[in-house]
Design a protein that fits this description.
mainly alpha
């Protein structure tokens, strides 16, 4: 990976982290248990005393939020390594959301 690819990947991860941080508490926790701790939906449901369907619904909503980040990204100009990280054909409004979040963090 080139330094530019690494920087883009880090920026995209920062954006994901910001979106996750702003999720409702239960959705955020379920997402983190699934994606960061690697728990199955059944394990999360048991751990949080929820139905498996509730866990699935929260994960679907979390992933829907993450797919919304993206924007007017010109996919052709992105490095292959970044395209491997995300399904970039589904990303929309990356730059506008990213800039808004950056402004909000100031």
């Amino acid at each position: 990976d080139s330094p530019d690819e690494d920087l883009i990947a880090k920026d995209l991860q920062l954006l994901i982290d910001m979106v996750v941080a702003n999720m409702p508490p239960q959705r955020k926790l379920i997402y983190q248990l699934s994606r960061e701790a690697g728990l199955s939906n059944a394990e999360i449901a048991e751990k949080l005393d929820l139905s498996k369907k509730t866990v699935e619904n929260h994960l679907n909503l979390a992933l829907k939020e993450l797919r919304k980040i993206g924007g007017d990204l010109k996919l052709i100009s992105l490095p292959v390594s970044v395209k491997k990280i995300f399904d970039l054909t589904r990303l929309t409004k990356f730059f506008s959301i990213y800039n808004n979040l950056q402004d909000a963090m100031k």
